[in-house]
Write a structure and sequence with these properties.
Elements (H helix, E strand, L loop, with lengths): L1 H4 L1 H16 L11 H6 L7 H8 L10 H13 L27 E6 L9 E5 L4 E4 L9 E4 L8 E7 L2 E9 L1 E3 L2 E3 L4 E6 L4 E2 L1
Antiparallel strand pairs: 1-2, 2-3, 3-4, 4-10, 5-6, 6-9, 7-8
Amino acid sequence: MDQYFGTSSINELKKSHQMFLDNSPFQKTLKISKKERKSKGLPPNKYFEREWELTMNPATGRPEPQKVLALQNRLLSNTIQNKTPGDGLDNPWVERGPNNVGGRTRVVMFEPNDLTNKRVFAGGVSGGLWVNDDIKNSSSPWSRVTNVPGNMAVNCMTYDPNNSNIMYLGTGELYTAGAVTGKKVYINLPMAVSVGN
């Protein structure tokens, strides 16, 4: 979170949140017994009081469900979010290769550091990690990432949320007809990977 707000802002937010928790209107009622709650006319279930504390906005000291509703409405009104790929003539699937290598693909990931949203990685079950530097261009070739063995099944990948230059690959696959043996998880493959044909 520090990269979004800065360390000092985070510390201030933590302090104010702790102050709101320490002064919660439910600090006393959360500690009393069920019998005492009943005698005071309070509901026996402490769930909603605790939920109030857990869902409060740390900046304001109270829950803000209206913001959740506003976000839901905004997402519902966004027509792009309501579309399913291939559901109409204006939203077709477009073939992007590769045209020279066959095999199944289990995972695709856009390069998180590419501000143009063109660079894409694909993991091949039949082997290797592949990269396309311009997925929007139908003639852009796929190249094999050379520091990943070409015969290794790549079935999942992600990047480190704390350092988007570090990539993780999961290998292997088990299916009914047999098994494609994996070689554990690969880590620390820089996004500026070396490629070959």
